[in-house]
Amino acid sequence: GVGKSHLLGLLQGEHLLRLQTLTPVRQGLIEIARALHQRHAFPPAASLPDFDAFRKLHTRTSIQGWLRLVLDAVAKDQWVLVIDDLSILSPYLGRLLDQFGGKFRIIAALREVKKGYVLHFSRFERLVLANLSRRETQQLLRQHLAGLAVEDRTLLETHLWEHSGGNPRALLEMVEHLRREPVTAEAERQLRHPGAHPQIDLTPIILIPAVLLVAARFIARGLGDTEAYILAGIGAALVMGVQFFL
User: Residue 164 — left, alpha, or beta (φ > 0 → left; ψ -120 to 50 → alpha)?
Assistant: First the structure.
């Protein structure tokens, strides 16, 4: 909610391709191919007037095949690839990003660069977008609270600042919530926004019990302990269910 997508949306250019995300990889490559096809980037011999027909022709084409189609259709630094959200990364996606970097100029947004993927971003120039300062928050709120009758505007601004952390989206969504309901002192005090709070990575909390339960199943099976094997299986199923809902 700090404005990454808004900033990327302001970018314009004849040789600019937009992509929401690279996952799933095959779909991401097809979307890039679609954009290139619309710009007539593919050679006439390899293309078809309609992209659906072009895609049908490559129904059996693998991910690597789609990658080669895309990379072979462009010259180095000819196109700018704008990726709105690159937060979900994997080792395979990291290698894919390296290959794209050999042909495309890439502008992408992500919440943070995780330690395991620092190398893939070593060639990137980084621009860090931080939440608004107290003063900037007050300026934004005074613009969007204009015309809204409140009992104590200073108190409301302080409350919104403390419960948003200066996150622009959280601020504006809380102001919009105020506009939909009668503005009372109680309504102002009850304003909260979960998006402004730091996110906790629960992967280790889920992964460790899952690994232990799988190991317990193998041990129980090796020892011939049917009851322990069944219990470990039930525990593993519960952990998978919790992971899905989280």
Answer: alpha
Burial of residue 158 (CB within 10 Å: 0-12, 13-18, 19+) is: middle
Count of CB atoms situated within 10 Å of the CB of 178: 20
* Residue 19 φ then ψ, to 5°: -140, 130
Write down the pTM of the prediction: 0.65
- Percent of the chain residues topping a pLDDT of 90: 22
Residue 159: is its pLDDT beyond 60? Answer: yes
User: Position of tokens 């105020």?
Assistant: 178
Distance CA 142, CA 147 (A): 10
Residues 6+ apart with CB under 8 A from 237: none
- Close Cβ partners of 194 (under 8 Å, ≥ 6 residues apart): none
pLDDT digits (tens, 9 = 90+) for 73-132: 999 999 999 999 988 888 888 899 999 999 999 999 988 888 888 888 888 999 888 888
By the 8 A CB rule, do 4 and 109 touch? yes
Report CA-CA distances (Å) from 4 to 24, 137, 175, 190: 21, 17, 20, 28
